[in-house]
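Example record used in the benchmark description.
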Amino acid sequence: MQHKSFAGMSCPIARGLEHVGEWWSMLVMRDTLNGLRRFDDLQRSLGIAPNMLTRRLNALVDAGLLERRLYSERPPRHEYVPTQRGRDFRPVLLALMSWGNRHFAPEGPNVTVIDTRTGQPVDPILVDPATGEPIRAPHYLVKNMKTGEIRRPPVDKRPSA
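Model output (structure tokens):
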């Protein structure tokens, strides 16, 4: 099935999805950010068809999220290493993992983020680096820098569950 391209959209979420929105891409990024580098290891971890994995790896290399490095000349073999752009994607995956644990794991989390200093689980949050405060409604807005349009997220008055 052919999907619409988001590349020409001005929305940064749409542009990001252009490169990582296909679900295998996110799982490849998850595994490479967690240390898997070689094709066979990625295929074994994901249970993905070789042709699909090849397409995803090529797309992530083309998007600048992974770097292909030769580790064997005979036969030619490559490993896939996250670039700075790819490493910058880690907080997105951590937030998605936390959200998935919170809303789609009725049995409880089976994977979570642990603080290496305390050994305790942590919940990733988005913070303002200037204040250290969590970024939460109603204390933020979204501004289109080209048009000046401002959108404020609605504030949900219901008590949280």
